[in-house]
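Predict structure. Chain length: 299.
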Amino acid sequence: MDIDFAPEDEAFRAEVRSFIEENYPKHLVGADRGDLSKEDFLAWHKILAKKGWVAPSWPEEFGGTGWTVTQKYIWNEESAAFGTIPPLPFGVAMLGPVIYSFGNQEQKDWVLPGILSGETWWCQGYSEPGAGSDLAGLKTKAELDGDEYVVNGHKIWTTLAQHADWMFCLVRTSSDGKPQEGISFLLIDMNTPGIEVKPIITIDGGHEVNEVFLTDVRVPAKNLVGEQDKGWTIAKYLLTHERTNIARIPLSKVQLAQVKRMAEREAGTGTIAERERIAERIAELEQALRTAEAEMAAA
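Prediction complete.
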């Protein structure tokens, strides 16, 4: 997508580029995500927090930047070009929008500041054995006992749960009606007795995902976001933000440019048919990115 930037936008780009170059932690330049410690993940986040640039997409009243759509685009583009580690997505891109859209005032007051500052690390308790892409099939159960929920169940593929302070979690509070009904959205302190995090070591030897076992975990009822049994609406809303975050179009453009350079360097190798197929595939990816970029700009 071709964009004509106004002079003030180019000035903003220069400001962004200068800020990143001067402030991005040197030890994180080119770092492999799999080698990062909790402190590494949070280093750039906390620098952005001091600048007030952690959550550009949030409304200003909750800590957003107030940037225009073009400025947000420039920020994402420059961040991708430099290769920065983005702020923790589970808080900024997922839970934050849920809380300022569905949470009560008390929840907004205690959850949002910790997300912005990086003081609270959140993980996502959605997938379960047998209920990955089919979230409506989840079985983790929460039963109300006085002013607490008692939670029992098993979450899986929980990204970076080994570092998390809190988890936002889908639980089943009723088995009546359709599977999508009876699901609630709870905020759970990971230091609560009855929670066990077990690593899942991936094929490359990395430890990014985990299993989380919950056994008689007692959660204050005030940690329910929205209405009981109405969590499916919140879950769908959150997933729209998750998909946007996963897309990371500016980063994909940078990576595709790297692939094109590699293809150019190897232009003399392989058969004509192989070279034509690579060129065709690159063109397809470029078109797909332009389409996705245009759709996100119009959203």
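Summary: The CA atoms of residues 81 and 145 lie 51 Å apart.
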